[in-house]
Amino acid sequence: MIYNDVLGIIFANMHDESISELTTVRTMGSILFGGRYRLIDFPLSNMANSGIPEVGVITKSNYQSLLDHIGSGREWDLSIKNGGLHLLPPFSHNNSGLYRGRIEALEGVLPFVHNSNAKYVVMADCDVVTTIDFRAVIREHVRNNADITVVYAKHQFTDKGIGSRASTILEVGDDKKVKSAIINPDILGVANRSLNMFVIERKILEKIVERFAPEGYASFDRQVLQQNKANYKIYGYEHKGYYEKIEDINSYYQANMNLLDMENKKNLFLDSSPIYTKVKDSGPAKYKEGAQVKNSLIADGCIIEGIVENSILFRGVTVAKGAQVRNCILMQNTQIGENAELHAVITDKKVKVGKNKLLTAAKSNALFIKKNQKIEDD
Amino acid sequence: MKKECIAMLLAGGQGSRLYALTQKMAKPAVPFGGKYRIIDFPLSNCTNSGIDTVGVLTQYQPLELNDYIGNGQPWNLDRLRGGVHILPPYQTASGSSWYEGTANAIYQNMRFIERYDPEYIIILGGDHIYKMDYSEMVEFHKKKGADATIAVLDVPLEEASRFGIMTCDDNERIINFTEKPKQPKSTLASMGIYVFTWEKLRKYLVENEKTGESKDFGKEIIPAMLSDGEKLFAFAFEGYWKDVGTLRSLWEANMDILDSDVIDFYDPEWKIYSRNLSLPPQYIGAEASVNNSLVCDGCNVNGKVNDSVVYSGVTIEEKVVIDHSVIMPGAVIKTGAVIRYAIIGEDAVIEKDAKIGVSEEELLRDKGKNAEYEIAVIGHGETISSGIVVTPGQMIPAM
């Protein structure tokens, strides 16, 4: 049973710096997304739904929110005796456990990887929101007799630099062999964008880390996919499903808003592979007399008395009478006071906007309000 | 291991007055209030009251209920010592028998109870919606030095004959108890929640087995204890409490909770726990309008919803009207369907343009008259074909 012979590794902090607004108080993996999720819910649920019995989550810093969120892994059915979920906090003999790249991160957890005894390792970051069956990737990996399989998606780059500058672009042959990898280029047009998900033979992964880490090489994409591609059988796997790649606060905003399109939502949340998340036991969402809600995603526990349009409200958000919320992302327990007006605003958790306040921004450059901030008259 | 107090939850009743909703599931498993099932209320009360050992006595159609309770984790009742235990009737060397009444059900599970060697035992029903701190009742029981304590509620006189009614002295001691009296002498009604000193109850259960006829708390045990001069006290409860044993009262309770003062679902200190499905947040469409209603995760609402409770995972298509109704989990309401004063069962499908419940003409006719309508009910999993009309009070059971 090859699917049982797989170790999953999730990099919770990778790409933190690209969205620093949201990661000063948390890891990339614990960024809130889509009304009730955190980014790590996607790779973790995908691994659980793919039958991967053991998953390690590598963290670096600010991981308290992550710990709290994933707990014992029960929500993902990974609270089991053999295998299950392991949170791997920084542990290192050098440089205080902080890592610069995938290889360095793996160096800190090499004994864990080794002891798993799995034949294959599936690695994923938390910057891609998608539903993917890793069993299909592993199947193709085995069929190709590959050493490494990189998951990619075709993407149309329309603005020079936007999107591609934070991506590894692959040239893939008809035989699915990866011919070259370019890191963070400025390009236009259709290209194969790496989704930072890999299948790799465990023993090969260990050798890579043992070889490059002591020399101070941190980046897997650079060292392996680019510089040493001749030494490994590297294949590509095209993911054709719906996905969103989060590279900065603007793409974060857009990725959330895209879920208001029913087609996208249907393609992300498949009945056959649910996305699990921590249960909070909030009450039902309440629409009071006078509420006017249109084209919005609303989580349980919200209490709405005002106008909400084209917005995403996380659990426990309250919108008072006469308030108007348009094109906004309001995270958990945000409170919008009476007659306040918000347009294209992202509020982090527990933000309080007082009565009659007016906050507006352009959709292309949404206004971000930090956790716990109170915007009201004294 | 010793526990000071354990709870026994009577969940075996058929709930025959819920007809179409309890054909295939026990009453405590019936969905309530958007994302809950009836049994979530007593179970959450136990957890919130610090009672960590609960026996759930099941008998009628237990499949759904067993599945729902599982290991008790959603209520924090998956414990190494104690926790939730499902207790169906079982076979013994001397034969086997179904639970023959509330007292008999407890009698048959004496061995379970004695494993915890409790000082006190609290008996709960599985058909009431309320928030209550049972630990206060146990404290009251201790303070009074009672043998039994009954939770009581002041009810309107005209409703009193539906309940066990008692009279008390100035010290809250019960002098008289009558089950469902034709001419009630007071309005203090039993809520079906009892605290007993286990030693005492044990004695009466054993005696009742030998001599009793109905093997029931209200009919036998309480009157027997009273006539023996045991110390029975009434613990007054204030707050929302609703028996949801009939279709009408189930519908009413759903309407009641639209008023935020009735039951606070948002109190972090006293959450109502439930087994959650992994569903995405609800989507309210561009043409939708939702007013004075509760809606839950996984719903997709594109029609008009007023004064209603919409449970998890419900689909409401365009041009649908839902008014004063209860739409249970997973139901699908298709384009143009109109539902007023109705209960739609779990996973039921209402096809295009079907009309369920009160018609627009009737509403117009009665405008301003504060009319009361019969509730139309569609059973779990039932499909109502396109264009069909289901009149007020009509009930379509599941096939």
Keywords:
heterodimer; A: 378 residues; alpha/beta; 6-stranded parallel beta sheet; 21% helix; B: 399 residues; 9-stranded mixed beta sheet; 9 helices; 33 strands; 29% strand; globular
Biggest interface, CB < 8 A: A-B, 39 and 36 residues
N-end to C-end Cα span of chain B: 47 Å
Rg of chain A, nearest Å: 21 Å
Strand element count of chain A: 29
Uncertain parts of chain A: none
Tell me the strand percentage band of chain B.
25-35%
Q: Which structural class is indicated by helix and strand composition of chain A?
A: alpha/beta
Helix proportion range of chain A: 10-25%
Largest sheet of chain A: 9 strands, mixed
The 3D shape of chain B can be described as globular
Indicate the proportion of strand residues of chain A: 25-35%
Number of helices of chain B: 9
Secondary structure: number of strands of chain B: 33
Oligomerization status of the protein chains = heterodimer
Biggest sheet of chain B, open or closed, and with what strands and sense?
9 strands, mixed
Overall mean pLDDT of chain B: 94
Work out the helicity level of chain B.
Answer: 10-25%
| Average pLDDT figure of chain A | 92
Give a short overview.
The complex is a heterodimer of chains A (378) and B (399). Chain A has 378 residues and is α/β, with parallel strands linked by helices.
Written description of the protein model:
Chain A has 378 residues and is of the alpha/beta class. Chain A is built from 10 helices and 29 strands. Chain A has helices at 20-23, 41-49, 64-70, 102-108, 110-116, 134-143, 202-212, 220-227, 249-258, 262-268; strands spanning 6-11, 32-33, 37-38, 54-58, 84-88, 120-125, 128-130, 148-157, 168-172, 178-183, 189-201, 234-238, 243-245, 285-287, 292-294, 296-298, 303-304, 307-309, 312-313, 318-319, 324-326, 329-330, 335-336, 341-343, 345-347, 352-353, 358-360, 367-369, 374-375. In chain A, the strands form 6 sheets. In chain A, strands 1, 4, 5, 6, 8, 9, 10, 11 and 12 form a 9-stranded mixed sheet that branches. In chain A, strands 14-17-20-23-26-29 form a 6-stranded parallel sheet, with no helix packed on it. In chain A, helix 4 (102-108) packs across helix 7 (202-212). The radius of gyration of chain A is 21 Å and the shape is globular. The mean pLDDT of chain A is 92. With 399 residues, chain B is an alpha/beta fold. Helix content of chain B is 20%, strand content 29%. Chain B is built from 9 helices and 33 strands. In chain B, the strands form 7 sheets. In chain B, strands 1, 4, 5, 8, 10, 11, 12, 13 and 14 form a 9-stranded mixed sheet that branches. Chain B has a 6-stranded parallel sheet with strand order 16-19-22-25-28-31, with no helix packed on it. Chain B has a 6-stranded parallel sheet with strand order 17-20-23-26-29-32, with no helix packed on it. The N and C termini of chain B lie far apart (47 Å). In chain B, 51% of the residues are buried. The model of chain B has no long low-confidence stretch (mean pLDDT 94). At the A-B interface, strand 14, strand 15, strand 16 and strand 19 of A face strand 16, strand 17 and strand 18 of B. Strand 14 of chain A pairs antiparallel with strand 18 (293-295) of chain B.
